[in-house]
Specification:
Elements: E1 12-13, E2 18-19, H1 22-35, H2 37-53, H3 55-60, H4 66-90, H5 94-115, H6 122-138, H7 143-164, H8 166-255, H9 262-292, E3 301-303, H10 305-322, E4 326-331, E5 338-341, H11 343-359, E6 365-375, E7 379-388, H12 422-432, E8 438-442, E9 446-458, E10 480-484, H13 488-500, E11 504-508, H14 511-521, E12 526-530, H15 538-547, E13 554-558, H16 563-571, E14 576-579, H17 584-601
Parallel strand pairs: 4-6, 10-11, 10-12, 12-13, 13-14
Antiparallel strand pairs: 1-2, 3-5, 5-9, 6-7, 7-9, 8-9
Helix pairs in contact: 2-4, 2-5, 4-5, 5-7, 6-8, 7-8, 8-9, 8-13, 9-12, 10-11, 11-12, 14-15
Organism: Dyadobacter koreensis
Modified residues (4-aspartylphosphate): 530
Domain Histidine kinase: 235-457
């Protein structure tokens, strides 16, 4: 099968006829020669052997012209054999050899008709008609060759018979020759139909192949672009989150210090607000990219809905009080003790919607309600409403409000601010929950956002865990932690947090130094390892440590939020995964979890 690429951009297609380009015709010619090769060869071999055999019909009928006919037919077969030899050894196309074979048969049979009288033409015309039917089935020729052969038959056969005797021509026609001539006359039309259908089928097949190849190229380009985007965002995530981790962490550390003046406290609070806002924007951008690229999967874990909604309410009370808004939380009393779903993503959706409601409401109230819609043996459907009495959303903006970077109100003074990502992310997260968000709003009167989610649930209460912040300072006096990071600020933050809990630590600035320190002592209870470092990265260092047979917990400290990098880390020997920027509480929870295990083992 010819597999060359076909350029069909300039080919014209009409309803009744296809106009093929010269390039396509060249490809089709090669394809057709390959496709019809065996049919042409069978045609040649059949006449090479079969043509002389027909002379024995005269022998069985005791016809004295048997030897004469046999000689003529053997001579024709010799020529056909020469043509086949030329085909196999000189690589002549089979279609050309078959065409000349047909012409040879026509010429030699015309010679027989012109020189040898027949008492009856019934058997001869019948045999030639059968041969024509056989030829029609196995051959597929372009119109030119089939027309030439037909013209030769319609000219030479009658001329040969008339040359023998005018009565012989009439007798031949009466005794089956009419059907032979009729079949031969139709032969070019049949060949044209077969040839055109094959060519058209080939055209559509290769047109589809070309389109598929173009589509595959586009898919490949799209995949490469997606990979490039992912790599770029991963790099930017690392470059932005790494210094941001230092800013956020150090601000939290400063808040624990005894500040000398109210001005210093105000500056630190302002810095905390700005860093948190920057962290929110970075997280939103990364989140939307991950969700939209199908990198996010919901984490199915049980959580206490009453505690969850109470924590949400406490989060927004200060902001609502600041704007003198009435914040109302109406939570159904019949909720089960456990809902089983992704608490973090649900929190993200509700937080985005309540935050927007408070931001766009200057007076009145913001109301959040949760109602039970339906309950089965293992599942419960909850209806969520976030309603406000704010400025509302214009009707012409409501259809695009969930689009990326879209805001209903874009005043020049940046009164409301924001990146325009919150609603887009909320809609995408709800898609992961198998839900969709509904909007009802009247400009100047307020808005109502609602959605439904099906949760699995359990009637068993959740056992409270011991709060990390209440742990004593000297819980791990005999433990030693190795902190590995090439960024001085992040190294300072991590070691300061360890120092505050009286946990002994050592530091390393790259993977090679970390590996050398591990080999020298091998008594670390926990290693906090950055992933991207010069000299030797965290992956290589961890592989070397694991190759020593070590089971020491190694927690990846990384600025990348991509799930595939997390999976790569966990599958390459890391025990845990902590994303920068992290809050002190998250840091301590990770450290205590692994030191607890090591303490029990000791």
């Amino acid at each position: 099968m010819y597999i060359g690429r076909l350029n069909i951009k300039n080919e014209k297609v009409s309803l009744d006829k296809l106009e093929y380009s010269s390039q396509f015709n060249d490809i089709w010619k090669t394809e057709h020669d390959i496709k019809t090769q065996w049919g042409n060869r069978i045609f040649c071999f059949a006449h090479l052997i079969g043509y002389p055999i027909t002379s024995f019909l005269y022998y069985f009928n005791h016809n004295p012209v048997f030897l004469t006919i046999l000689k003529i037919q053997l001579l024709a077969s010799a020529i056909i054999a020469g043509l086949l030899f030329f085909h196999f050894y000189k690589k002549a196309p089979s279609r050309v050899i078959a065409f000349y074979t047909f012409l040879t048969i026509i010429v030699f049979h015309s010679l027989i008709l012109a020189t040898i009288p027949h008492t009856s033409y019934d058997r001869a015309s019948f045999n030639m008609t059968l041969a024509l039917i056989f030829i029609t089935f196995i051959l597929c020729w372009p119109p030119k060759e089939s027309i030439i052969c037909t013209v030769m038959v319609l000219l030479l056969f009658p001329a040969a018979l008339y040359f023998l005797s005018p009565d012989s021509l009439l007798q031949f026609i009466r005794e089956g020759g009419f059907f032979l001539f009729l079949g031969q006359f139709l032969f070019p039309f049949v060949m044209n139909v077969k040839y055109s259908n094959d060519k058209r089928a080939f055209y559509y097949r290769y047109s589809l192949r070309e389109k598929n190849e173009l589509l595959e190229e586009q898919i490949k380009i799209s995949q490469e672009a997606t990979k490039a985007k992912t790599d770029f965002l991963s790099m930017m995530s690392h470059e932005i989150r790494t210094p941001l981790n230092g800013i956020v962490g150090i601000v939290h550390l400063l808040l624990k210090e005894d500040l000398r003046s109210d001005f210093q406290k105000e500056m630190i609070q302002t810095l905390l607000f700005s860093s948190n806002h920057l962290m929110t924007v970075v997280n939103d951008i990364m989140d939307f990219n991950k969700i939209n690229s199908n990198y996010v999967k919901l984490e199915v874990k049980p959580f206490n809905p009453a505690l969850f909604f109470k924590s949400l309410e406490k989060t927004f009370i200060p902001k609502a009080d600041e704007k003198n808004l009435n914040l109302i939380f109406e939570i159904a009393d019949s909720l089960p003790p456990q809902l089983i779903s992704d608490e973090g993503r649900l929190n993200q959706v509700i937080t985005n919607l309540i935050h927007n409601a408070i931001k766009f409401t200057e007076k009145g109230e913001v109301k959040f309600s949760v109602k039970e819609q339906d309950r089965q043996d293992n599942s419960i459907k909850l209806l969520f409403h976030i309603t406000d009495t704010g400025i509302g959303i214009p009707e012409d903006k409501q259809s695009v409000i969930f689009d990326l970077f879209t805001q209903a109100h874009t005043s020049g003074d940046r009164q409301y601010g924001g990146s325009g990502l919150g609603l887009a992310i909320s809609k995408e997260i709800l898609r992961l929950f198998g839900s969709d968000i509904q909007l009802s709003s009247v400009q100047g009167e307020g808005s109502d956002f609602s959605f439904e989610i099906d949760f699995n649930y359990s009637m068993l209460p959740i056992i409270k865990s011991y709060p990390v912040k209440d742990l004593p300072l000297s819980l791990y006096p005999d433990c030693k932690v190795l902190v590995v990071d090439d960024n001085y600020t992040n190294l300072l933050l991590a070691t300061t947090l360890l120092k505050r809990k009286s946990i002994y630590f050592e530091t390393a600035e790259n993977g090679k130094e970390a590996y050398d320190k591990y080999k020298a002592s091998q008594d670390y209870d926990l290693i906090l390892m950055d992933l991207k470092m010069p000299v030797m990265d965290g992956f290589e260092a961890t592989n070397l440590i694991r190759a020593e047979g070590s089971t020491v917990p190694i927690v990846a400290l990384t600025a990348s939020t991509f799930e595939d990098e997390k999976e790569r880390a966990l599958s390459n020997g890391f025990t845990g995964y902590l994303v920068k920027p992290f809050l002190p509480l998250d840091f301590y929870e990770m450290v205590y979890t692994h030191l607890d295990k090591k303490t029990i083992e000791k």
